[in-house]
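Help needed: design a sequence for this.
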């Protein structure tokens, strides 16, 4: 998360990681093995990586990392081929704002957000009082980053960041993250075994990268440790509020809203041609300091509004490039699924599952299996 996240094209939080087992099996001298992790996110022997770690130790020392910290951090660490695979597989896939919002403000994320907002109301109100950031905004960021803590990431951070630093595609950036991660360990905030995150090193409930953690994380519970990894999200949510407060958030000001719907005055933007317009304030720009994307900031703002009880957007989006509206796409998914071609849900976002279902349906009726949706296909399914 935070500033650099855009360059990883994560889209919505670090969602690639489904497994969230907190338990880890650590034997001194043996690699840390997380039972829930895919095989390619477990360390494998790599002589080049080992040589790089040896050469890196001097630079870590120069940055103030003690031998003891370094040894403890790397005891269970290793080269993770799956991290490089995920780094290479990132496509600059651009979603429309409508599709983005279908995912960011899905029924499930909204329902769980309202529950989390209630459950953690006491903490959120105290954070709002202390940092001035609206409780529903903090909740919405939590929802987008980790599905309210459900998907905090299980990949050991030292292994992930050292693998990426060694790999070198963004070596300098990840070496900075690795050194920051080592400083966090040296400070005693967390143990190496519990320091986990996304494959790219974004950690905890609100997916702080190590340098952002160093700059902004706070101990809200008062136990002397800034624990953004624990089940209790208090420190993580406080750290997010602190981040926004120190990046231009103004107390009492809305992020913005749909233009012409009683929105505050502000800059009017229209991220998707033919779609709704939004009037946005300086707090919208503060959210973008978390993730520099208009879609992300609208996703946070709109999810926050919905969590606090507002209704859906009034403005309509135009039909997509295939001539289908969102209602059409939902109907397409429902009809395919009803005929036995499972689209994995009917959210109106046509992803790989829907394309596969379309191909299978096309094959079944003797059409070329293009996977291409169209109004004609929808009619045929009718
Ligand atoms: Ca704490």
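Sure. Designed sequence:
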């Amino acid at each position: 998360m935070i500033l650099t996240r855009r360059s990883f094209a994560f889209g919505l939080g670090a969602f690639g990681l489904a497994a969230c087992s907190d338990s880890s099996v650590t034997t001194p001298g043996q690699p840390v093995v997380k039972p829930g992790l895919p095989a390619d996110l477990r360390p494998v022997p790599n002589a080049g990586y080992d040589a790089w770690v040896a050469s890196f130790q001097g630079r870590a020392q120069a940055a103030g990392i003690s031998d003891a910290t370094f040894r403890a951090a790397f005891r269970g660490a290793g080269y993770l081929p799956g991290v490089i695979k995920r780094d290479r597989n990132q496509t600059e896939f651009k979603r429309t704002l409508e599709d983005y919002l279908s995912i960011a403000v899905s029924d499930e994320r909204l329902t769980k957000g309202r529950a989390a907002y209630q459950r953690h109301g006491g903490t959120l109100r105290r954070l709002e009082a202390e940092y001035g950031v609206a409780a529903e905004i903090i909740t919405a960021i939590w929802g987008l980053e980790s599905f309210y803590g459900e998907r905090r990431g299980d990949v050991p951070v030292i292994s992930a960041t050292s693998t990426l630093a060694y790999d070198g595609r963004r070596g300098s950036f990840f070496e900075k993250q690795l050194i920051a991660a080592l400083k966090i360990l040296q400070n005693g905030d967390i143990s190496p075994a519990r320091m986990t995150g996304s494959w790219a090193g974004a950690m905890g409930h609100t997916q702080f990268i190590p340098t952002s953690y160093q700059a902004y994380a706070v101990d809200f519970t008062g136990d002397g440790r800034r624990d953004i990894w624990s089940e209790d999200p208090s420190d993580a949510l406080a750290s997010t509020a602190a981040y926004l407060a120190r990046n231009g958030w103004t107390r009492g000001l809305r992020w913005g809203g749909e233009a012409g719907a009683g929105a505050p005055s502000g800059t009017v933007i229209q991220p998707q041609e033919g779609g709704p317009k939004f009037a946005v304030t300086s707090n919208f720009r503060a959210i973008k300091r978390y993730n520099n994307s208009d879609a992300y900031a609208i996703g946070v703002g709109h999810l926050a509004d919905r969590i606090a009880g507002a209704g859906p957007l009034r403005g309509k989006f135009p039909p997509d490039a295939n001539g289908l509206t969102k209602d059409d796409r939902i109907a397409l998914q429902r009809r395919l699924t009803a005929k036995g071609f499972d689209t994995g849900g009917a959210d109106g976002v046509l992803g790989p599952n829907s394309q596969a279902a379309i191909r299978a349906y096309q094959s079944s009726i003797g059409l070329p299996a293009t996977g291409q949706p169209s109004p004609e296909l929808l009619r045929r399914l009718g």
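The longest helix spans residues 171-187.
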